[in-house]
Input
Amino acid sequence: MNILISGGTGFVGYHLIKCLVNKGHLITCIIRPNSKTETLKAFDVQYISTEEIINKQIDFSQFDIVYHLASIRHKWGTSWNEYIRSGQEYTEMLLKSSVSKIAQFIFCSSVAVYGYSEELPISEETERKPYNLYGKMKLECENLVTSYNEKYGLPYTILRPSIVYGENDQQGMMTRLIKMIHNNSYHTVGGGRNRIQCIYIEDFINILEKIGTNFHPTNDGFIVSYKYPITINNLVKLIRNELQKKVILDIKIPEWFARFIAIIIEKIYQKGVKLTGPEPIIAQEKVDTMVKDVIYDISKIEKEYDFKPIFSYEHGINRLVHNLAQENKWKV
Ligand SMILES: NC(=O)c1ccc[n+]([C@@H]2O[C@H](COP(=O)([O-])OP(=O)(O)OC[C@H]3O[C@@H](n4cnc5c(N)ncnc54)[C@H](OP(=O)(O)O)[C@@H]3O)[C@@H](O)[C@H]2O)c1
Output
């Protein structure tokens, strides 16, 4: 198949391109003037620019499908205007060019569209009520995608992954957590008994590929995650085992105290003083990730696509820890 990908220079994009190139598909990747394409050098990939699309120099009928992955990932301090540019404007540019030309538009959204629901597990039936600008932007983009289906019949699939983790992810929550545990700078916030539910990159790529190469798009949205959650305490234990780190002092920070510090640090950042690097080391949203109990029901995608993640938390963490150890010359 001839496939167009936005966000190919990112974490998910790299793994998707590697998988699709290995399966013999032709890949065209949309890049920006400052996009870093070094990681894709190993693959035979064509590049086009967003300007070429805006100037209507690219005929989308040469493509069978479009994977739209490009987006500012959830990042502290990003303004609504920046989210709109990377979200709605970019999505609409691709949708306009895709109408009547391609067989399927696959949009990578996020479980952030559901926010922190009181009712668990979160399923596709749960009200979409984002709690942050990133989730709001993803919801606006989802609405755009469905409106292009309603108005112009553009076939689509929306995927809402939970936390995706794996090799080559520089910014992800799991990579950061492993690095903090390795540096002995991790402390549990709250009791650590709350649950999170992740997905290993290879399982996510397998379902992306399966949906893309299925010529009967469902025109629907799906949560993508492991079937089961893990408590923060068990996840940390697993990472410590892989890193062979003994707990010297297990300080548990009360949630109220973490929030108090987060509020102060965020206020200092808003005044332009970057105390702990480009992003605050602790922010209220980061506290939420550490303390909120969130679980997902994946039965819809299981039924529709026979989705069966094959990587356990143990296997995925083992791979990522060894990858980070190799990259950073850690002894594990
Ligand atoms: N990783 C996760 O845990 C996770 C979970 C849920 C959903 N998602 C979604 O999955 C998709 C891929 O995520 P990822 O983890 O691969 O993210 P990533 O590593 O941060 O890559 C982001 C990609 O989007 C492009 N991009 C960033 N800002 C942009 C902007 N303002 N305008 C246009 N393009 C921009 C980047 O291109 P440049 O090279 O030009 O910067 C890059 O190719 C995203 O839509 C993300 O929201 C990810």
About this structure: Residues 11 and 169 are 5 Å apart (CA to CA). The longest strand covers residues 26-31. The two ends are 42 Å apart (CA to CA). The first helix runs from residue 11 to 22.
